[in-house]
């Protein structure tokens, strides 16, 4: 039987790959001219380089991502250290340090001053215990102490990156889910991994190749305008290029952004608030001793990534920056890069990428609006990091949602 997957972001790709590899006939349709959604790469003429739209960091403990990469033969396209080590720099004081957790789940590293966050005490880490259990409906600041050195130098930047929402007002339940799947499992579960050479090379291109090899149909530049419905099922799909009948035994997996799903599906509740992410890329050769990734404290930039002939930065929860003049923003961000890496203040060739609706706002209120994958239409299934995955809007959540949607579609075929 056939499954129509609408949307070729990571969630849609994950669903399509799993279905195609199980022998299901898959037709994947994407409105944009390229697959990948927010996880994409492109040639930027201003830099003369292929860049990613953003710096998407994944962790070694992201089980759904690793299974997906194995399925498309691309696990080797993630690069990172053999052990979990995180370098930090405070641009206000010039202080640097390296967080070195041990591999196992018993966190003996907090007893070592050379491994833990400087100026913290062992007792400070007990404040993270509440996040090791569910905290439904609570904000982070209602579940743990949000002040002090440990908060400023580790938990606030970590949770801001994970939630893409101001850490204090973020959902403690979502924050806790990330902590339980990474920090609580030990360093082996949160070794940082970066796509190499690009996001598309790791997450997108191998998936398209896998789908085409499995006989799936991939159609780009094909926007879905309407879902045709009768009683309890989807009966047709109206695309910009024509109409498609959905047969009695066929399923539709809708893997589009929440605002698009909300327009297509009657009375569907979806998150309504979103948060921005700003990334900037600078064409400059990093210093020979530059760390691949550095966390920044006290600046505008939050993370700095060093690539061959390029330095890139990320700012999460960046609503305050998205309307700023692009060159002024580039200069502001470059100031932090120059301070951290000891480079000239002269602005090199640059590109700024603004994602105004990068993720849903990971607050308790918005988390409560996330719908389940199943809908009241028997053959319509939702996928996307904005659905009720139990995780924030991350690549791991997107892949997990796609896999879950595929499982539900497979269950329908069995029935």
Largest sheet, order of strands side by side?
8-7-16-17-18-15-19
The CATH first-level class of the largest domain comes to: Alpha Beta
Spans of 5+ residues with little confidence (pLDDT < 50)? none
Instruction: Classify the beta-strand content into a percent band.
Output: 15-25%
Counting helices, strands and paired strands, the structural category is alpha/beta
Write a concise synopsis of the structure shown:
With 415 residues, the chain is α/β, with parallel strands linked by helices. The protein has ten helices and 20 strands. The strands form five sheets. Strands 8-7-16-17-18-15-19 form a seven-stranded mixed sheet, sandwiched between helices.
SSE diagram, text form:
Blueprint: E1 2-6, H1 10-21, E2 25-29, E3 41-44, E4 49-52, E5 57-59, H2 63-71, E6 78-79, E7 86-90, E8 96-99, H3 140-143, H4 149-163, H5 172-181, E9 192-195, H6 199-213, E10 217-219, E11 224-230, E12 233-239, E13 242-245, E14 251-254, H7 258-264, E15 274-282, E16 293-297, E17 303-307, E18 310-315, H8 326-341, E19 350-360, H9 364-367, E20 380-382, H10 395-414
Parallel strand pairs: 1-2, 1-14, 2-10, 7-16, 14-20
Antiparallel strand pairs: 3-4, 5-9, 6-9, 7-8, 11-12, 12-13, 15-18, 15-19, 16-17, 17-18
């Amino acid at each position: 039987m056939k499954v129509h997957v609408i949307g070729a972001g990571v969630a849609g790709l994950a669903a399509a790959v799993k279905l195609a590899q199980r022998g299901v006939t898959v037709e994947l349709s994407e409105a944009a001219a390229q697959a990948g959604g927010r996880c994409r790469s492109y040639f930027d003429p201003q830099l003369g380089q292929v860049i990613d739209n953003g710096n998407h960091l994944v962790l070694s403990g992201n089980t759904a991502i690793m299974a997906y990469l194995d399925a498309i033969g691309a696990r080797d396209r993630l690069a990172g250290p053999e052990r979990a080590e995180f370098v930090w720099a405070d641009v206000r004081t010039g202080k640097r340090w390296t967080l070195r957790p041990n591999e196992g789940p018993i966190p003996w590293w907090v007893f070592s001053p050379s491994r833990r966050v400087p100026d913290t005490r062992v007792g400070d880490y007990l404040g993270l215990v509440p996040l090791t259990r569910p905290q439904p409906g609570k904000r982070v600041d209602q579940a743990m102490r949000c002040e002090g050195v440990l908060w400023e130098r580790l938990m606030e930047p970590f949770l801001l990156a994970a939630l893409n929402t101001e850490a204090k007002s973020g959902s403690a339940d979502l924050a806790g889910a990330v902590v339980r799947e990474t920090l609580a499992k030990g360093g082996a579960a949160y070794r940082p991994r970066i796509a190499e050479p690009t996001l598309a090379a790791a997450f997108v291109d191998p998936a398209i190749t896998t789908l085409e090899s499995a006989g799936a149909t991939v159609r780009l530049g094909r926007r879905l305008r309407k879902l045709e419905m009768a009683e309890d099922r989807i009966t047709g799909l109206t695309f910009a290029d024509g109409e498609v009948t959905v047969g009695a035994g066929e399923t539709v997996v809708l893997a589009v952004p929440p605002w698009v799903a909300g327009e297509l599906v009657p009375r569907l509740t979806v998150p309504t608030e979103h948060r921005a992410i700003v990334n900037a890329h600078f064409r400059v050769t990093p210093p020979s001793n530059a760390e691949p990734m550095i966390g920044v404290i006290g600046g505008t930039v939050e993370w700095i990534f060093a690539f061959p002939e390029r330095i890139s930065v990320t700012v999460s929860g960046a609503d305050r920056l998205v309307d700023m003049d692009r060159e002024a923003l580039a200069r502001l961000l470059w100031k932090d890069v120059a301070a951290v890496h000891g480079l000239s203040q002269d602005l090199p060739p640059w590109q700024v990428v603004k994602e105004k609706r990068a993720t849903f706002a990971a607050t308790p209120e918005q988390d409560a609006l996330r719908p389940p994958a199943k809908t009241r239409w028997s053959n319509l299934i939702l996928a996307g990091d904005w659905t009720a995955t139990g995780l924030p809007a991350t690549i791991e959540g997107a892949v997990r949602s796609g896999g879950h949607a595929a499982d539900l579609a497979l269950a329908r075929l069995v029935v």
